[in-house]
Amino acid sequence: MVQTIWVLGDQLNRSTGALASARPGTHRVLLVESAAKLGGHAWHRQRAHLVLSAMRRFAAELTREGFQVDYRRAGSLDAGLKAHRADYGPEQVVAAEPTSWEGLALLRRRGVQLVPTDQFLCHPGNFAAWANGRRRLRMDDFYRWQRRRLGLLMEGDEPQGGRWSFDTENRRPPPRHGTPWPVPKSFSLDDLDRAVLADLPSGLWGEPPQGWWPASRSQARERLASFCRDFLPHFGPHQDAMLQADWHLAHSLLSPALNLGLLRPQEVIDAALAAHRLGGVPLPSLEGFLRQIVGWREYVWGLYWLWMPGYRDENALEAHLPLPPAFRGAPTTMNCVAQTISGLRRRAYAHHIQRLMVLGNLALTAGVEPREMVLWMRTAFVDGAEWVMIPNVIGMALHADGGRMATKPYAASGRYLQRMSNYCTGCRFDPGSRVGPSACPFTTLYWDFLDRHRNRFSTNPRLALALRSLERLDDLPEVRRRAEQVRRDLSAGNL
């Protein structure tokens, strides 16, 4: 009897989940393209293309291996499963645990046999056990636990180099003269890519793909090798910098491949460690990168499963401003926003500081509705999985969970952007001004944000200095009036 293995669109790896032990003679494979999911929102064209291209390539690889592959285009995932069962009988369907709450609920309702996901280093059950009884779930504590558990960069029970984190060395502003980073390799588009583009629904946005994103396991492994050879040695010092002329800096650009299952986190770790052993990769760069893989990424994954489904609805700061039209591509004279959104339109990508300290910072201080921000980021970014975006937006960027995830809101004035980018050069706004027509909207909104929420944050030690500075402002009434105008202009697309 042949058993069906259902592979979801972010589980595209022959060595994971239920596929790991499957054989062509005893197993068939089901993949479903869902029209409801693809047509339900205004997805970025490159995000939609990448998912479908990767799915179809994976189906072709399995077919060449000898598997019978039932590749369905259906109105929904549920409809695809029903049609498969109608054609092949009601025998048991097996799948790895999905990466979304609603996906898990669907498969359970339909009686799909689930096997534990192994696309992460820490299963949600293990994360829940770690979290049990802790008053605060701090990423640093989780990261240290992961390092010890995995024996990663450890010398006995102590961290290699005598420090758990080299983060303080990895926050340098942009280099003054040129950049040491080569252009990442792109991948040629083929007939399959062109067929996917022809099949995409109307209503998508963003430029067509230019081959930046790996759509197969072989391409993903090539990107990983290139990163470890050409970029990882430079990863640490400027990872928080932002440059108009360099969209990628030394970032790995591996998150889309990891989130689709084309790469596994352990092989990424092994490749980075191997590059370090060969020499040329400083320990601060290695540690900073591995902290993103074994620390932050797994921490976000664990929090998603621990706090869902209610977590996606949290709005502790009562923020209800609609998403600014500038985020959807409307013209804006804020150069940092214009540069970030222009890059997003061209590549469906912005690195983590652009996401947090440009887009997230503006949305936080202006008071953008959290659920609207989550949906936009899920559909706009090439790596925008739900489990990624809900904790990162609700907890990290918008502080909508009231501080359950982050110990302080990540609000900053234009001075931060001036220090960490070259966006302010030539911008019509002055990052040092709070009021007046040339005042930077980020600076105005920052002080207004602290003012509006001063009672909530009065006991937060990480904001004590900022709140003392707020008390000394002699133009606070004017700041409030200017902030109201900024919010109106943001909502109207006039800023």
Observed structural traits:
alpha/beta; DNA Cyclobutane Dipyrimidine Photolyase, subunit A, domain 3; 20 helices; single chain; Serine Threonine Protein Phosphatase 5, Tetratricopeptide repeat; two-stranded antiparallel ribbon; Rossmann fold; about 500 residues
CATH topology (fold) name of the largest domain? Serine Threonine Protein Phosphatase 5, Tetratricopeptide repeat
Radius of gyration: 23 Å
- Shape assignment: globular
Largest sheet strand order: 3-2-1-4-5
Instruction: Please report the distance between the alpha carbons of the first and last residues.
Output: 64 Å
- Number of spatially distinct domains: 3
Largest sheet: 5 strands, parallel
Q: State the helix count.
A: 20
Helix fraction?
40-55%
* H/E element sequence: EEHHEHEHEHHEEHHHHHHHHHHHHHH
Low-confidence stretches: none
Q: What is the typical, i.e. mean, pLDDT? A: 96
Strand content: 5-15%
CATH architect. name of the largest domain:
Alpha Horseshoe
Structural class by helix and strand composition: alpha/beta
The level 1 CATH classification of the largest domain is Mainly Alpha
Q: How many strands in all?
A: 7
Short description:
The chain is an alpha/beta fold. The protein has helices at residues 35-39, 45-65, 77-88, 101-109, 124-131, 139-150, 191-199, 217-231, 255-260, 265-277, 283-307, 335-347, 352-366, 370-380, 386-397, 414-420, 441-452, 454-457, 464-471, 476-492; strands spanning 3-6, 27-34, 68-74, 93-96, 113-115, 154-155, 158-159.
